[in-house]
Amino acid sequence: MTRARLCPVTSSVSRGTISQVTSSATPAEHLRDLARLRRVRDRIDREYAQPLDVEALARGVHMSAGHLSREFRIAYGEAPYTYLMTRRIERAMALLRRGDLSVTEVCFEVGCSSLGTFSTRFTELVGMPPSIYRRRAAGGAEMPSCVAKQVTRPIRNREARVAEPRLA
To answer: At what angle do helices 65-76 and 80-98 cross, to 10 degrees?
Structure first.
């Protein structure tokens, strides 16, 4: 393909507009794709604790894994796996604030199968390891869960700065 033929596609991708990226699709096909993406997002929100992967999500909406990942990123600003991990970390934060489960129990409760991967991703999104988050949340004043959810929402689409240890 020549460079001149790629320029319109490249410029539309850089602007991030779905309608221009999928300009070859009819409006009906475009709406059908958006409905599929919503079904994938809703399934992730409902079944975050289940062993989900991009291939299984794609099969559920009759798309290839690559096409699903590409379209999901355009529509929601992040890949399906990243969205899934964010949901899991949000739920883990709520469970850790309760304080009645260990970090390992929380890891498995939210659907992660590797404590190392869970801890790494938690630290990237929240800015501190889950054990420290649990300790600080247990020592903090009680706040309503609806407020805590808004205040402690993980950072999306970028990594949080890791909290520096305070020396006494």
So the answer is: 70
